[in-house]
Inverse folding.
């Protein structure tokens, strides 16, 4: 049995809200996945670069964190998830790493570095995974 046309407006409002909430959850999950993976993929010599991946909502963090090793960055990404989910509207979410030699690491300068442009590859890979998962989750 079909619903009366008079229900179309309220149904669309409910659907719109579900999509908005689902998209915000998907964004938060994607950023956490990207940030955590970047921390794990960052070449480690002293641990300074891998521990300086920082996430923020609204305004980018423009200073080093002063912590070392990826577990620090991964823990910070979990805090970012909560912050992103509790933010009203459609917040801007930033991932930064302010160590002055990050651009060199990304170009394959370090002996421990993966391939050149690993930052871009990590972001693209995680975006694909997040979008694929989100296609099935966003309206649930």
């Amino acid at each position: 049995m079909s619903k009366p046309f008079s229900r179309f407006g309220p149904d669309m409002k409910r659907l719109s809200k579900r999509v908005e909430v689902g998209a915000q959850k998907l964004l938060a999950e994607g950023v956490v996945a990207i940030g955590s993976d970047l921390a794990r993929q960052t070449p480690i010599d002293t641990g300074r670069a891998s521990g300086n991946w920082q996430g923020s909502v609204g305004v980018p963090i423009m200073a080093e964190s002063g912590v070392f090793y990826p577990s620090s960055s991964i823990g910070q990404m979990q805090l970012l998830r909560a912050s992103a989910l509790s933010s009203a509207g459609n917040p801007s979410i930033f991932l930064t790493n302010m160590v002055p030699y990050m651009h060199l690491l990304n170009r394959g300068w370090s002996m421990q570095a993966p391939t050149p442009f690993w930052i871009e590859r990590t972001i693209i890979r995680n975006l694909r995974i997040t979008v694929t998962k989100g296609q099935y989750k966003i309206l649930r």
